[in-house]
Amino acid sequence: MRSIPLLLSILLFLPGILFVNQVFSQPSSLFCKSCHENNYGEWNNTKHSSAYLDTLFQSEWSKEGKPSYCLKCHVTNSMYLNEGVSCASCHNWVEGHPQTGPLEVNFSVLICAKCHEGSHHPFYEDWIQSKHASSLDTLEKIGMSKNDECLLCHSSEDFVSNLTGKNYRKEVLNPVNCQLCHDAHKLKLRIPETNELCGTCHTGVFHPTFEVFKGGFHNLARVNCSDCHMYRKPYQGIEEPAITGHSFKIDKRACMNCHGVLKGILPFDEAWKTKNEIQKKVSEKLNLTLKGLKETEEAIRSANSTILKATGIFIGDLDEPRRLLNLSIESFEKAEVLLQTVKGEGSKGFHNAAWTIENILKTEEMMDKAKLLAEEAVKLVDLTIYKNKLLLNLERKSGNVNSFFAFGALIGLLLGFTFGFIYARMKPKRK
Ligand code: HEC
Ligand code: HEC
Ligand code: HEC
Ligand code: HEC
Ligand code: HEC
Ligand code: HEC
Ligand code: HEC
Ligand code: HEC
Ligand code: HEC
C-alpha cells in the first residue's frame, strides 16, 4: 500500500525530468527571434513553422488517431507544438548562447535526413543514389579535394558561401546536398529558376549541359531540367513507396507526363524511340571520331620523330616542317577539347541533337586538318632529305668526273709521249 505514492511520484517524476529537459535543451523559436529577427521572419510562414498546425496534417493525424510518432518529424519540441519544425531542429542548442559562442550552422545531409526519409518521402534515400552525393569522393579520387576552384561546385559549404558572401568553410565539407539547393529558412530554391540553378554548375567547357540545352527544342518549349530529371510520384502503399525525383535519373514516366498527354507533340513511344535513335547515332559517331583522333595522334607522333631523326643527319631547312607540325598539334588539341565538350554535355545528343552533330562534324574537320598537316610535314622532310641526297650524289659524281679527266689527261700525255717518241724514231734519217 505504501508503494503506491512512491510509484506515483516516480511516474510523475519521469515526465517532469523530460519536461524540464526539453524546456532548457531546446528553446522556443520566439527566444531566437529576440536576436535573430531576420532568420525568424524567413522561417515563419514556411511549411516548417506550420508543420504541426497545417490543416492537412491535423486532419490526417486525427484520422490516424493522433499517434505520437507523427510528431517525431512534425514537431521539434513538445513544449512548443505550434512551432512545428523549429530553429533548434537544425541548430543544436548550446546552453548559454550567445555568450558561449555562436550556434553551429550544419550542412550535413543528416540534419534534413532525420525527417525527409522513409517510404512516404524518401528524399534522402533517392539523393544518396545520385552522383551529387559523391561529388566530393570524385575529387578525392583524383587528389583534388583541397582545390578551392573545384569545391565551388562540388561542395555545399563553398557553393553557399560564394552565393551568400558568408563564410561557412569547415574542416570537413559536404557534397552537393539539400542545403545547397534549398534555402533551409525560406524553403525556396536558392536560385528560383530550376534551369538556372542546375545551370550554375552544369556549365563550362567540360560539361556545357546548360548552354547546349538552351538551344534545344525542349528548352524552347519551356521544359525544365526537373521535368525530366526529377520524376515524382506520391506514396501508394508499402509496396510502392513515393519517388521524390532526387536521384536525378531519367525515368520514362517523366516523358509520359507530356508525351501522350499534350496535344500536338509526339506520342510517348515515338518520342522515346526518337531519343534512342539520336543517342545511338551520336554514340556511333562519337566512337568513330574517337578512333580518328587516335589515328591522328599517331600521325603527329610519327611526324615528330621523322623531324627529330632528320635533325641529326643533315643540314637543311626544317623550319617549315616544324611549323606545319605545330599547326597540326594546335588543331589536334582543339579537336580533342571540342570532343570532350560534346561528350561532357552528357545526354549523347538528346538535349540538343543539332548542336551535337554540328560539333562532331567540326571536331572531324579539325582532326582531318591536323592529320593532313602532320602528313604534309613528313612529306616536306622526305622531300628535303631526297633533295639533300640528290645533292650529295651529284657532288660524288662530279668528283669522279674530275679524276676521270685527270686520269684521261695522264693517259693522253703518256700516249702523246709514246707516239712522239716512236714517230721520232721512225722518221727517216737524213744524211
Ligand atoms: C541574446 C541574443 C541571442 C539569442 C537569444 C540567440 N542568439 Fe544566436 N547569436 C547571437 C549573436 C550575438 C551571435 C553572433 C555570435 C558570433 O558570431 O560570434 C549569434 C550567432 C548564432 C548563429 C551562428 C551564426 C553564424 O553566422 O555562424 C546561429 C546559427 C544562431 N546564433 C542561432 C540561434 C538560435 C537557433 C537561437 C535560438 C535557439 C539563437 N541563436 C538565440 C545572439 C543570440
Ligand atoms: C520520418 C519523419 C516523418 C514522420 C514520422 C511523419 N511525417 Fe509527415 N511529413 C514528413 C515530411 C518530411 C513531409 C514533407 C514531405 C514533402 O514535402 O514531400 C511530411 C508531410 C506530411 C503531410 C503533407 C503536408 C502538406 O502540407 O503537404 C502530411 C498530411 C503528413 N506529413 C502527415 C503525417 C502523419 C499523419 C504522420 C503520422 C502517421 C506523419 N506525417 C509522420 C515527415 C514525417
Ligand atoms: C531546416 C533547417 C534550419 C532551420 C529550421 C533553421 N535554420 Fe538557420 N540555418 C540553416 C542553414 C542550413 C544555414 C546556413 C546558411 C543559409 O542557409 O543561408 C543557417 C544559417 C543560420 C544563421 C547564420 C546565417 C545568417 O543568415 O545570419 C543563423 C543566425 C540562423 N540560421 C538562425 C536560425 C534561426 C533563428 C532559426 C529559427 C527561426 C533557424 N535558423 C532555423 C538551417 C536551418
Ligand atoms: C524535424 C524534422 C525536419 C527537419 C530536420 C527538416 N524538415 Fe523539412 N519538412 C519537415 C516536415 C514535417 C515538412 C512538411 C510540413 C508540412 O507540409 O506540413 C517539411 C517540409 C519541407 C519542404 C517543403 C516545403 C514546401 O513548400 O513544400 C522542404 C523544401 C524542406 N522541408 C526542406 C528541408 C531541408 C533542406 C532540411 C534540412 C536543412 C529540412 N527540411 C529539415 C520536417 C523536417
Ligand atoms: C552545386 C553544383 C550543382 C548543382 C546546382 C546541380 N548539380 Fe548536378 N551535378 C553536380 C556535380 C558536381 C555532379 C557530378 C558529381 C560527380 O560525378 O562526382 C553532378 C551530377 C549530376 C547528374 C549525374 C547524376 C548521376 O547520378 O549520374 C545529373 C543528372 C545532374 N547532376 C542533374 C542536375 C540537375 C537536374 C540539377 C538541378 C536541379 C543539378 N544537377 C544541379 C553539380 C551540381
Ligand atoms: C562550374 C562548376 C564546376 C566546377 C568549378 C568544377 N566542376 Fe567538376 N563537375 C561539375 C558538374 C556539373 C559535373 C557533372 C557533369 C556530368 O555528369 O555531366 C562534374 C563532374 C566532375 C567529374 C566526374 C565526371 C567527369 O567528367 O569525369 C570530375 C572528375 C570532376 N568534375 C572534377 C573536377 C575538378 C578536378 C575540378 C576543379 C579543377 C572541377 N571538377 C570543378 C561541376 C564543376
Ligand atoms: C541539386 C539540387 C537539389 C538537391 C541536392 C536537393 N534538392 Fe530538393 N528539390 C530540388 C528541386 C529543383 C525541387 C523542386 C522540383 C520542382 O518542383 O520542380 C526540389 C524539391 C524538394 C522538395 C519538395 C518541395 C516542393 O516545393 O515541392 C523537398 C521536400 C526537397 N526537395 C527536399 C530535399 C532534401 C531533403 C534534400 C537532401 C536529401 C534535397 N531536397 C536535395 C533540388 C534539389
Ligand atoms: C526533355 C527531357 C530532358 C530535359 C528537359 C533535360 N534533360 Fe538532361 N538528360 C535527358 C536524357 C534523356 C539524358 C540521357 C540519359 C541517359 O541516356 O541515360 C540526359 C542526360 C543528362 C546528364 C548526364 C546524365 C548522366 O547520367 O550522366 C546530365 C548531367 C543532365 N542530363 C543534366 C540536365 C540539366 C542540367 C538540364 C537542364 C538544363 C537537363 N538535363 C534537361 C533528358 C532531359
Ligand atoms: C514538360 C513536358 C515534356 C516532357 C517532360 C518531355 N517532353 Fe519531349 N517535348 C515536349 C514538347 C512541348 C515538345 C515539342 C517541342 C517543339 O516541337 O518545339 C517535345 C519534343 C520532343 C521530341 C522532338 C519531337 C520532334 O518533333 O522531333 C522528342 C524526341 C521528345 N520530345 C522526347 C522526349 C523524351 C524522351 C522525354 C523524356 C526523357 C521528353 N520528351 C520529356 C514536352 C515534353
Mean pLDDT: 89
Q: Distance between termini? A: 189 Å
Overall geometric form: elongated
Structural classification? mainly alpha
What is the N-to-C order of secondary-structure elements (H for helix, E for strand)? HHHHHHHHHHHHEEHHHHHHHH
Question: In summary, what is this structure?
Answer:
The protein has about 425 residues and is mainly α.
Question: How does this model look, in words?
Answer:
- The chain has 431 residues and is mainly α.
- It folds into three domains: 1-104, no CATH class; 107-265, no CATH class; 268-414, Up-down Bundle (Butyryl-CoA Dehydrogenase, subunit A, domain 3).
- 61% of the residues lie in helices and 1% in strands.
- It contains 20 helices and two strands.
- The protein has helices spanning 3-25, 29-33, 37-43, 55-63, 71-74, 87-90, 109-113, 123-129, 135-141, 148-154, 156-164, 178-181, 194-201, 209-214, 217-220, 225-229, 252-256, 268-313, 319-344, 353-426; strands at residues 182-183, 188-189.
- A two-stranded antiparallel ribbon has the order 1-2.
- α10 packs across α11, α18 (268-313) runs antiparallel to α19 (319-344) and α19 (319-344) runs antiparallel to α20 (353-426).
- The longest helix has 74 residues, at 353-426.
- It is elongated, with a radius of gyration of 41 Å.
- The N and C termini lie far apart (189 Å).
- Mean pLDDT is 89; it is low at 5-24.
